[in-house]
Inverse folding.
């Protein structure tokens, strides 16, 4: 099986978010970057498990500049066979999707994996976009994936439950918690990653339909009001009369 | 015209759908135009969407649309949007909406904003939409400049508003492409409001010591009519099911009231709950970081405080 995993780079989950002077970009001072958790923990690892069980190759792809190479190498260290970076700073989700689709369309991938969403833009839309561009089914929020030859059974998370779906390759999916267990790269993986191919490809031209005009911080919370642990009637009164949520 | 894809579940509409229609109606007002709705598959009261501001409801009643295939849905919605001359297409930011929005954007080569949490502004053909980014730590104002504009609406961002009467329902004859997948089973927990839609949430963390102690949390939730949630370590070790895990790597929620007991308030936890309107924190450690993000705090042992709170709510309801 030929597997493609789309991986993005995001600020570490502990990052304190701040913006530049005119609030048009993230202030990257001191920001640590990681591979988007859903891509690394679930999408990539499930792809590796399938390869280990049935043979095949796992390629990872990222759309971004050379500063993303360290993140991409981590994916190779975890076990991907090869990597592709489309060399552009994408201007929108659709830009990312068009770049991935332009690379993937003639490669004959059986399965294309995405994360559920990026933890910076929280879009949950790139996977669906690529699926449409490649004319493939898309199963979002997969929490289990079982393959039997070319046939897959997938459970996907829906509000308050799960949906069970059957379909055949080729298709795309986005990975939610449960799909796999996080793997920590070992020393051997890290050494081998250095020799694995990281192909840099040129982007296709894309017209941007969306731009971030500006960022804004949500209003600050006022200080916490402490209520005596013995007096829960008072808390209920505050919730009902002051906060008006009961 | 603003077209709202009105999602139905087993033929009925949920609150999130009424929110989306209200959002569509208000967006249409901002743009100086009107709002229509599109219903796919079985639906019991499509005309009722008129009450939330849809002037007309288009209905593709084919029962093959009762289950979601994002590829089929996107094709039908795109065709309907073009036929009706929609400038904006709106849907819920639900598991269904998230599966479709991106497909539509690619199919129509249109700009999209996923998860809007405020009514947009409109000037010179550009729609500016606010959405949370960095897991709720900030907002982005995104300009959409394409001819057709796509927006999905974050749940609980606005209250559904009745503004009119039932609308006329027109059958729409759309081409329905063959599906390449089979939905074998749809399993939903009955009787409980799913977390993303819940207005009241009671959540607990490692301070609970073990799964056997969750009775007091469930009693509090029952008394309030709230949905239960938990921190990540608690679901990781299997004390609670995965779908209860809230936070940056779990479900993101925005209830009116979030009560957290025995949760320290790590930044990754806050990322999924910081959009809650009111936060109550119960923790025995006065230095717990969660107090900084809370509206109301109780410093104390949750094993005493939670049952006491349940009693107080019972008394409040009786009064
Ligand atoms: C990449 C990444 C992603 C993550 N994503 C998430 C996420 O999505 N969601 C999430 O929740 N976490 C997430 N985490 C984990 C997060 O960093 C914290 O470890 C986690 O939230 C802590 O869970 P907790 O508050 O239940 O436990 P603890 O931090 O152990 O806190 C327990 C709290 O209970 C209090 N307590 C103990 N006994 C009592 C008592 N009797 N009465 C009252 N209070 C008591 C203690 O004072 C303490 O504050 C993530 C971490 C990483 C690295
Ligand atoms: N720049 C990128 N390069 C490669 N894949 C990406 C990129 N951005 C997003 N993705 C993939 O698309 C998924 C959803 O992203 P988003 O729509 O931004 O939430 C991510 O989890 C990744 O799998």
């Amino acid at each position: 099986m030929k597997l493609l995993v789309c991986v993005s780079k995001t600020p570490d989950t502990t990052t304190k978010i701040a913006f530049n002077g005119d609030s048009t970009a993230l202030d990257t001072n001191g920001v640590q970057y990681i591979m988007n958790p859903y891509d690394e923990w679930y999408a990539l690892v499930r792809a590796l498990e399938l390869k280990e069980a049935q043979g095949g190759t796992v390629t990872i792809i990222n759309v971004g500049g050379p500063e993303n190479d360290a993140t991409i190498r981590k994916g190779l260290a975890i076990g991907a066979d090869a990597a592709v970076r489309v060399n552009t700073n994408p201007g929108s989700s659709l830009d990312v999707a068009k770049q991935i689709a332009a690379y993937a369309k003639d490669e004959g991938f059986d399965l294309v994996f995405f994360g559920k969403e990026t933890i910076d833009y929280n879009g949950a839309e790139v996977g669906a976009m690529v699926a449409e561009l490649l004319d493939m089914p898309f199963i979002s929020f997969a929490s289990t994936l079982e393959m039997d030859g070319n046939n897959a059974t997938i459970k996907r998370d829906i509000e308050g439950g799960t949906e069970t779906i059957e379909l055949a390759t080729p298709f795309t999916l986005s990975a939610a918690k449960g799909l796999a267990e996080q793997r920590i790269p070992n020393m051997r993986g890290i050494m081998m990653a250095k020799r694995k191919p990281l192909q840099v490809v040129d982007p296709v031209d894309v017209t941007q339909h969306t731009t971030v005009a500006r960022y804004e911080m949500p209003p600050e919370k006022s200080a916490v009001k402490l209520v005596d642990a013995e007096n829960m009637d008072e808390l209920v009164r505050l919730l009902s009369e002051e906060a008006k949520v009961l | 015209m603003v077209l709202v894809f009105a999602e139905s579940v087993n033929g009925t509409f949920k609150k999130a759908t009424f929110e989306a229609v209200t959002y569509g109606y208000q967006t249409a007002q901002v743009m100086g135009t009107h709002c229509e709705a599109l219903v796919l598959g079985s639906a019991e009261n499509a005309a009722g969407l008129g009450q939330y501001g849809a002037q007309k409801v288009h209905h593709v009643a084919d029962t093959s649309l009762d289950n979601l295939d994002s590829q089929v849905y996107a094709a039908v919605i795109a065709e309907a949007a073009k036929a009706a001359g929609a400038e904006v297409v709106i849907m819920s930011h639900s598991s269904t909406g998230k599966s479709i929005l991106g497909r539509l954007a690619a199919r129509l080569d249109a700009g999209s904003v996923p998860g809007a949490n405020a009514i947009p502004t409109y000037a010179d053909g550009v729609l500016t939409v606010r959405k949370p980014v960095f897991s709720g730590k900030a907002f982005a104002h995104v300009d959409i400049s394409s001819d057709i504009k796509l927006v999905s609406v974050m749940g609980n961002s606005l209250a559904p508003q009745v503004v009119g009467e039932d609308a006329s329902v027109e059958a729409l004859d759309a081409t329905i492409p063959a599906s390449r997948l089979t939905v074998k089973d749809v399993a939903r927990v009955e009787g409980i409001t799913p977390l993303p839609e819940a207005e009241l949430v009671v959540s607990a963390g490692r301070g609970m010591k073990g799964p056997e102690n969750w009775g007091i949390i469930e009693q509090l939730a029952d008394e309030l009519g709230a949905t239960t949630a938990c921190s990540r370590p608690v679901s990781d070790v299997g004390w609670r099911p995965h779908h209860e895990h809230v936070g940056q790597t779990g479900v993101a929620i925005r209830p009116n009231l979030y009560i957290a007991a025995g949760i320290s308030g790590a930044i990754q936890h806050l990322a999924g709950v910081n959009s809650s309107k009111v936060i109550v924190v119960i923790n025995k450690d006065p230095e717990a970081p969660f107090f900084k993000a809370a509206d109301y705090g109780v410093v104390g042992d949750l094993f005493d405080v939670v049952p006491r709170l349940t009693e107080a709510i019972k008394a409040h309801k009786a009064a």
